[in-house]
Specification:
Strand order of the largest sheet: 1-2-26-24
Keywords: Amino-acid biosynthesis, Aromatic amino acid biosynthesis, Cytoplasm, Transferase
Organism: Oxynema aestuarii AP17
Protein name: 3-phosphoshikimate 1-carboxyvinyltransferase
Radius of gyration: 21 Å
Bound molecules: shikimate-3-phosphate
Structural class: alpha/beta
Function: Catalyzes the transfer of the enolpyruvyl moiety of phosphoenolpyruvate (PEP) to the 5-hydroxyl of shikimate-3-phosphate (S3P) to produce enolpyruvyl shikimate-3-phosphate and inorganic phosphate.
Helix content: 25-40%
CATH class of the largest domain: Alpha Beta
Number of strands: 26
Shape: globular
CATH topology of the largest domain: UDP-n-acetylglucosamine1-carboxyvinyl-transferase, Chain
Number of domains: 2
CATH architecture of the largest domain: Alpha-beta prism
EC number: 2.5.1.19
Number of helices: 14
Distance between the termini: 6 Å
Length: 450
């Protein structure tokens, strides 16, 4: 079978990724290993940095986002070895002993770095911190964490009444609160719990729907006094306990696996096994949605590694049906909605995505950008305030599209291009390195094996 042509063109200002499937079609075959989970990588670096003693991390994601976390926490006094997929060693400062950095802390493109770090900085007495990020991060809402931190007594200033970075933080002794979050956000929940580690008394977060629980699991593994009640969507931490360094094994990122699951599902004749994928139930919304769409996905070799469930996922091409994505499944699939929109474009019937307004405040406005880019490729997409309506089934055409510097958009469009007629050029494709630095080489080898 002829292979798709995947080429990269680096200009002074951007990387262009060109994908052109052969006219006779393409079938993806083989086994794929995805890099480490981004959420778990951030948390392993951060908890290692504030714990006492040594933490070892196996399988850390070497993407730009965890590099931002490592850079910030080095500046805060943690000793973090050179980042390496095999093992990273973190020698933590001990709780309450982060150092005042000499310069601004730059979280780059990473919302998780900035929001989680804010909880730790706000509760660090007698230190002053200035934090910022790239253009995208400086436009993303920070009041969702600044407001509850202020209720705990935090002193934070920033543009628009502290709702936009750059932010200035004067660390102080905080008091525990019970916070009922209006949004299901693991970044909000984790920020408050991290602040609660050093606050007086108990800090509780109640969510409207369950978001990813990696912080809860990892805090328990580091010895924090934490109680989670997932049924009640409630989690509490009691301030004052020491965290002790431990060893963390990072599973493959289901958000990265999702690109290959959809690729094999939409490209006729494909069969792929994606190995070592983290299948924590707070993250498997994408698998539930694909099952609703009639995708053929089997879990193999299920195991638990360092407190997180892991499996290999075998996916075969099938004819996909439309479905409705709404309600509690949305936070469990929040980062996979762009690639699920691609799946919907190839499914028969109308897929409706609702309750997903959060996508408008991610690395880009993912609802607007996916609607525009899929429309450019010939899909029938209507943008709604909180979602998308996608009439699937009409063939897609190759086009000139743009990632808007959003990693998940870049990769979603590359997968859509695998089943489009003619050549697609994805502008600003370098964004993929935020969460998946080996995406293009894996794409090339998956196509070469077809
Ligand atoms: C993340 C939580 C999610 C997700 C982001 C990573 C995390 O954001 O979109 O990519 O690691 O906690 P929200 O919690 O704000 O929805």
């Amino acid at each position: 079978m002829p292979t798709a042509i995947v080429t990269v063109n680096n200009t002074e200002s951007e990387q262009q990724l060109q994908v052109e499937p052969p006219a006779a079609g393409l079938a993806l075959q083989g086994r794929i290993c995805v890099p480490g989970d981004k959420s778990i990588s951030h948390r392993a670096l951060m908890l290692g940095a504030i714990a006492s003693g040594e933490t070892t991390i196996e399988g850390l994601l070497l993407g730009e986002d965890p590099r931002s976390t490592a850079r910030c926490f080095r500046a805060l006094g943690a000793e973090i070895s050179e980042l390496d997929e095999k093992t990273v060693t973190v020698r933590g400062v001990g709780i309450g002993r982060l150092q005042e950095p000499l310069d601004v802390l730059d979280a780059g493109n990473s919302g998780t770095t900035l929001r989680l770090m804010l909880g730790l900085l706000a509760s660090q007495p007698e230190c002053f911190f200035a934090v910022t990020g790239d253009k995208s991060l400086r436009s993303r809402p920070m009041s969702r964490v600044v407001q509850p931190l202020k209720q705990m007594g935090a002193q934070i200033w920033g543009r628009r009444d502290g709702s936009l970075a750059p932010l200035a933080v004067r660390g102080t002794r905080l008091r525990g609160i019970e916070y009922r979050s209006p949004i299901a956000s693991a970044q909000v929940k984790s920020c408050i719990l991290l602040a609660g580690l050093m606050a007086q008394g108990r800090t509780t977060v109640v969510e409207p729907a369950l978001s990813r629980d990696h912080s809860e699991r990892m805090l328990a593994a580091f010895g924090a006094d934490i109680q989670a009640d997932p049924e009640a969507k409630r989690v509490s931490v009691v301030g004052g306990s020491e965290l002790k360094g431990t060893s963390v094994v990072v599973p493959g990122d289901i958000s990265s696996a999702a690109f290959w699951l959809v690729a094999a599902a939409i490209v006729p004749g494909s069969e792929l096994v994606v190995e070592n994928v983290g299948v924590n139930p707070t993250r498997t919304g994408v698998l539930d949605v694909l099952a609703m769409m009639n995708a053929d996905i089997h879990w193999e070799n299920q195991r638990t590694i360092a407190g997180e469930p892991v499996a290999d996922l075998r996916v075969r091409h099938t004819k996909l049906n439309s479905c409705e994505i709404a309600g509690e499944i949305v936070p469990r699939a929040i980062d996979e909605i762009p690639i699920l929109a691609v799946a919907a474009a190839f499914a028969s019937g109308t897929t409706v995505i609702r309750d997903a307004a959060e996508l408008r405040v991610k690395e880009s406005d993912r609802l607007a950008v996916m609607a525009q880019m899929l429309t450019k490729m010939g899909a029938r997409v209507t943008e709604r305030p909180d979602g998308l309506e996608i009439v699937g089934g009409s063939p897609l055409q190759g086009a000139d599209v743009d990632s808007h510097d959003d990693h998940r958009i870049a990769m979603s469009l590359a997968i859509a291009a695998l089943n489009a007629r003619g050549k697609t050029t994805i502008h600003h494709a370098q964004a993929a390195a935020i969460s998946y630095p080996t995406f293009v080489s894996t794409l090339k080898s998956a196509c070469d094996r077809s």
